[in-house]
Each structure stands twice: as C-alpha cells, then as structure tokens.
Design brief:
GO molecular function: ATP binding; protein serine/threonine kinase activity
Bound molecules: adenosine-5'-diphosphate, magnesium ion
Shape: globular
CATH topology of the largest domain: Transferase(Phosphotransferase), domain 1
Order of helices and strands: EEHEHEEEHEEHHEEEEEEHEHHHHHE
GO biological process, one term: defense response
Distance between the termini: 12 Å
CATH architecture of the largest domain: Orthogonal Bundle
Region (Disordered): 362-413
Structural class: alpha+beta
Protein name: non-specific serine/threonine protein kinase
Keywords: ATP-binding, Kinase, Nucleotide-binding, Plant defense, Serine/threonine-protein kinase, Transferase
Number of domains: 2
C-alpha cells in the first residue's frame, strides 16, 4: 500500500541506539501518529487537551527541586529501572506535605524522569497522566503526581517493592529468584485483571505495550500495570478498530496490528498470550542467543502447547514438579488461544481472567512445599510431570545485561 509509517526524527534514548534487525529494536523515536485511513492526518494522543488532562486529574503537581532532593539528585545507585522513555529512580517524600523526606522515612516513591530530547516523551508523559490520573484499580500502579517545569517532565508513582516481572523471570542473581508456578499464576491473574479493567472501561482503553517490564509486583505479589505511555482510547460507536501508527515492542505486537496498524483490544490479548508463554517457559519472547529455530518463542512453542507429550519441552525447568499436567495444559491452551492469528478467535480478557481464576488454587497436584529460595532446584512430585525437558536449564551467565532489552518503539515491517 506504500504507507509511510512515520518519520524517524531522532532516537530518544542514547542507551538504546542499536537497532537490531528482526530480533529487536531498542530505540524509541520521535514521530507522529499517523491515521492510516487517511494516510496523512495525525491523530491527537487523546481527545482532551493538555490543560484539561492536567486540571481534571487528582494528581499532585510536584516541584522539580523537591523531586531532585527526594531522589538525592537522581542518584545513579537509586535507579530502579530504565525504559525507552526515561529512567526510574527511588525516592522518599513526606506523605502529607509531598516534599522531599529523608531516605528511609515517609512515603517511598518511584520517579520517572523522561529523557529530555524531543517531544515524543511529552506525548507519553501526558498519556500516562491522562489514563492513570483517571483510573484507580488494584491492578494498575498508582500515579501520585507529576512535574511539569520548564523542560522537565516527571511522573511520581507508588513504589513497587518487587520491581518488574521481567526482572523476576529473566534476571539472574541472588536477589531475583525464579518465581514459583503458584506466583506466576498469581501474577498472570493480576495482570489479566488490569487489562480486563481497561478493556471494560466506559471508554475502552487499549494498553498497547503489554510486556513483562511493564508489569510491576508489590510485596504481596500483586501485579500492577504501569507505563501507560502508549495507551490509547479504543474504538467508539460502530468502529471496529482505531487506526494508529504501529507502536509497541517487537515480539509482543499482534500480527494484524503489525500488518495494518488497526488496533483493537484483541491486540492486547495477543500480547497477554506472549507474556503468559514467557511466564510458562521462562524464555524471552525474542532471544537471538537461543539456537536457530528457537529465537522466536511463539513460533517455536506453538506446536508444543496443545500436546501432552511435547508441552514439557516448553515449560520452565526451574519450576518443574510444581504443577500437574492438567494445570500445565490448561495454562498452555489459554496462551495458545490468546495467540490465535485470527484476532476474533482470541478470548476476551474477562474469559482469560475466569480461566486463570480456576488455575489459582487447583488441587490437582500435591505440590512440593517450596519457597522462593529453593525453586531453583528442580523438584519432582509423585503426581508431577513425567517427562524430562530437553533443554532443562538455560545457560546462566549470571548477568542480564548481555540481552538487548526490548523497549517500545515504532514497529516497522
Ligand atoms: N513504581 C515503580 N516501582 C518500582 N520500579 C519501577 C516502578 N516504575 C518503573 N519501575 C522500573 O523501571 C522500569 C521502567 O519503567 P517504565 O515505566 O516501563 O518506563 P518506560 O516508560 O521508559 O518504559 C520498569 O520495568 C521497572 O523495572
Ligand atoms: Mg516500560
């Protein structure tokens, strides 16, 4: 069709400048959304103006100097994580005055400071305020406030003590122990509830960047969605989809969205399927460090997901013995449905939630008692799987840095 997806103006994040062919692009670019139906008109990020969004939200407006002190001048050793749009720092504020507090006192916060190069960051910053300023839900991270001062754009969230799901699944090291099967199912359910809530909102919201680094975990292993920078209002009236420039993260975006730019809630369901598969397998959606034929998790795993015989090739060896064959097949079948190429065949998120509810306290297997410390050791229960995985343990380098971390960006064909 000869559609020009976008104008690449500038890579925003200097730490993510290496674009890697088909396996991942670690850059975000300054560009405008394109209305593909008209091919030229740009779509505003939200139907409300910036003034309306900032006024209507119940968020606290912070001074830059307070956030600077709260994070001890954005100390490098207080970085909680980095995304394509900026770094996130740990900080402390007085919970009543909202001024900086001594480290270890008052309210712990996470402060996202957007990279200051270009306007794209501003758009995402505003989208987060628009959505997280309106919604409160146990499975959405709480946005406390923002800072808009000269060129500074910051967001202040509740601190999530257990960090992101990405860290729990893929980081190696003593701090992040692999999550047990039970906790994986718990986190999957929480994240599914967050998406279901957005899809069921009066004006439907499509999250558009569902991936493990955007799922945060609190002290009780409740999952909360964060990073609403790419969220978008769903179609209204008799429209079946919204037309957008293709944004998101390689490995997670639904095939029809990649091909057409037509965005629906079912695109999120596909991404949910990818994340569920990452949770079941302990493998990243895209991993070029794997042997040939295993780079793309969905392509590699799909043929095994419905098979009693092959399913154990896919399942994470680190949680072997913690589930029954029935549970594994049920979860794998759910992932398979979410990953249907035909969007209409994917379940709606309410259905996903219902299935995951059933998987929470299944009594099918007498699980070996385990805790977060010993899940590294394969445990075999008498009713557990009878098959040995071929690739039982991934080569562990002891560091996560070797893998190019996927970040959201415009996606190109
Ligand atoms: N509220 C928070 N509490 C703890 N860690 C957080 C919080 N928000 C973000 N992080 C960490 O920072 C990383 C990047 O945050 P994110 O909001 O996804 O940024 P970006 O919009 O740049 O992708 C997350 O993957 C997580 O590890
Ligand atoms: Mg992110």
């Amino acid at each position: 069709m000869g559609i020009c997806w976008s104008v690449r103006i500038k890579a925003v994040s200097p730490s993510h400048t290496s674009a890697t062919a088909s396996v991942g692009v670690n850059a975000k670019f300054v560009s405008k959304d394109f209305d593909l139906s008209g091919s030229t008109g740009s779509v505003p990020p939200t139907p409300r103006s910036e003034g309306e969004i900032l006024q209507s939200s119940n968020l606290k407006s912070f001074n830059f100097s307070d956030l600077k002190s709260a994070t001890r001048n954005f100390r490098p050793d207080s970085v909680l994580g980095e995304g394509g749009f900026g770094s996130v720092f740990k900080g402390w504020i007085d919970e009543h005055a909202f001024t900086a507090a001594k480290p270890g006192t008052g309210l712990v916060i996470a402060v996202k400071r957007l990279n200051q190069e270009g306007l794209q960051g501003h758009r995402e910053w505003l989208a987060e305020i628009n959505y997280l300023g309106q919604f409160q839900h146990p499975n959405l991270v709480k946005l406390i406030g923002y800072c808009l001062e000269e060129e500074h754009r910051l967001l202040v969230y509740e601190f999530m003590p257990r960090g992101s799901l990405e860290n729990h699944l893929f980081r190696r090291g003593s701090y992040f122990q692999p999550l047990s099967w039970k906790l994986r199912m718990r986190v999957a359910l929480g994240a599914a509830k967050g998406l279901a809530f957005l899809h069921n909102a009066a004006t439907q919201v499509i999250y558009r960047d569902f991936k493990t680094s955007n799922i945060l975990i609190d002290s009780s292993y409740n999952a909360k969605l964060s990073d609403f920078g790419l969220a978008k209002d769903g179609p209204v009236g008799d429209k079946s989809h919204v037309s957008t420039r293709v944004m998101g993260t390689y490995g997670y975006a639904a095939p029809e969205y990649l091909a057409t730019g037509h965005l629906t809630a079912r695109s999120d369901v596909y991404s949910f399927g990818v994340v569920l598969l990452e949770m079941l397998s302990g493998r990243r959606a895209l991993d070029k460090n794997r042997p040939n034929g295993e780079h793309n998790l969905v392509e590699w795993a799909k043929p095994c997901l419905g098979s009693k015989r092959k399913i154990f090739r896919v399942l994470d060896a680190r949680i072997e013995g913690q589930y029954s064959l029935g549970e594994a097949l049920k979860a794998a079948d759910l992932a398979l449905q979410c990953l249907s190429v035909e969007a209409k065949l994917r379940p709606i998120m309410d259905k996903v939630v219902a299935t995951l509810e059933q998987l929470q306290d299944s009594k099918e297997v007498t699980r070996s008692s385990h805790n977060e410390r010993n899940v590294n050791r394969p445990i075999r229960s008498s009713t557990g799987p009878k098959y040995r995985r071929r690739n039982a343990i991934e080569p562990s380098s002891g560091k996560a840095a070797s893998y190019p971390r996927p970040s959201a960006s415009p996606l190109y064909e």
